[in-house]
Amino acid sequence: MATILHADMDAFYASVEQLDNPELHGKPVAVGYGGRRGVVAAASYEARRFGVRSAMASSVAKNLCPELVFIRSRMPRYAAISADVREIFYRYTPLIEPLSLDEAYLDVGGSLRLFGSAGEIAQSIRRDIREELNLPCSVGGGSGKLVAKIASKKAKPDGMLIVEEVDTLEFLRPLSVSEIWGVGRVTEQKLLDMGIATIGQLADYDPEVLERELGRWGPLLHGLANGEDLRTVEGDRARKSYGEENTFEYDATEPDLIEATVIAHAETVARRLRRDGVQGQTVMLKYRSSGRDVDFKLVTRSHTLDTPTDDGAVIGRVATDLWRAEPKHPPIRLVGVQVSGLEGDKPVQLGLFNEGEGDQRSKALNAALDDIVKRFGASSIKRGGA
Predict the structure, then answer these.
(1) Looking at the structure, do residues 145 and 207 belong to the same domain, yes or no?
(2) Would strands 278-289 and 137-142 be described as parallel, antiparallel, or unpaired?
(3) Domain match, 75 and 141 both
(4) Which of the listed residues 52, 141, 143, 230 has the most CB atoms within 10 Å of its CB?
């Protein structure tokens, strides 16, 4: 029985730009910088018909599609819409594992009696997103993460594909090994050198030889090829922290863009904390640098507060201070905010002084923000002066 869904917003950044500017409907749109040394961050499906793809040099994209319209990215706006999408997901299951702003895994095994089959839940999610946000979303489903993610890719654009457990091997076997999670160019070439081009060939290969050639990765790949995917959906309630992150499609360098993205992530994390009645005491900023002079390692910086919080303004201020305190601000490919040291359903230790008028107003503001978001969506409001 299919119980894991992978939901993926279609051409997300470009779709949001077309949503906000009706004049862009039906036109080839690229989100990114169209100037010299610019890179395409995302492309609408109208642009993709000309061969325009994300991570492509802007000059190449323009040669392929002279009518291409370039729009500068607005990451806070995309993060706000992403939060709206996430709230729709939570209507159907509490077990949600975000992968980026535009995609997430959902475990709907415990929701089948309430909402019907995995296919019916997927259709409901797509309907709600279309009717409430006017955006397309493709959903794939299967008995494991691998099948669900591949199925959502096959369903694009704006479609749905559910692979039942009995059909898993038939679905997987004809596909290229490059479709498997974690198989990059180097691993794919090693497999090709071994005469393994399809998932079916990988499934039939001797696992001992795979281990000898690929190390521990070999038997794991062999299991995935045979439909053995034991990875679970790690929802918030199963974690010891709440986090939100995104990977930029091109290197982010503008301070305003990076800090606005950090603040948007902080607000989303805070809303999820408040929704679950939890507060956290340690705020962590993480980012992955990009460029010739860096090693692409994930950098983390954290600060522990005197008392736990679920206030987006506090989380955002700490996270941006951590970023500003970095001695260098290299181009970054990923940025995220995480809150840990969770406390919930128990008294919180008071600070040295009693709660003042500012704290009370902050709580009232957060309650008002949550009410507005619940009624009109996360993209309907943003905090000023953060």
Answers:
(1) no
(2) unpaired
(3) yes
(4) 141
- Is 103 labeled as catalytic in the residue annotation? yes
Determine, yes or no, domain membership for 314.
Answer: yes
Interstrand relation of 69-71 and 96-100 (parallel, antiparallel or unpaired): unpaired
Q: Which single residue is written with the structure tokens 């109208």?
A: 46
pLDDT tens readout for residues 146-187: 999 999 999 999 999 999 999 999 999 999 999 998 888 889
Which of 103, 245, 259, 267 is flagged as catalytic?
Answer: 103
Count of other CB atoms within 10 angstroms of residue 237: 10
CA angle 280, 281, 284 (to 5 degrees): 90
pLDDT at 238 over 70: no
Q: Whole-number mean pLDDT of the chain?
A: 86
Residue 303 tokens read as: 């600060």
User: Which domain covers residue 21, as residue numbers?
Assistant: 1-172
Assign 44 a pLDDT band (cuts: 50, 70, 90). Answer: very high
Which position has the token pair 């900023």? 285
pLDDT tens-place string over residues 348-378 = 443 444 445 555 555 555 555 555 455 545 5
Say if residues 274 and 245 touch (Cβ distance below 8 Å): no
Residues sharing a CB contact under 8 Å with residue 327, sequence separation 6 or more, in sequence order: none
Domain boundary among the residues 172, 195, 217 is at 172
In a domain, 132, yes or no: yes
In a domain? residue 230: no
DSSP string, 4-54: EEEEEETTHHHHHHHHH-GGGTTS-EEEE--STT-BEEEE-HHHHTTT--T
Q: What is the CATH number of the domain that holds 187?
A: 1.10.150.20
3-state secondary structure string, 171-205? HHCCCEHHHCCCCCHHHHHHHHHCCCCEHHHHHHC
Preceding peptide of 22 cis, ω within 30°: no
The secondary structure of 272-318 as a DSSP string is: HHHHTTEEEEEEEEEEEE-STTS--PEEEEEEEEEEEE--HHHHHHH
Domain count of the fold of the chain: 3
Q: Which amino acid is at 382?
A: K
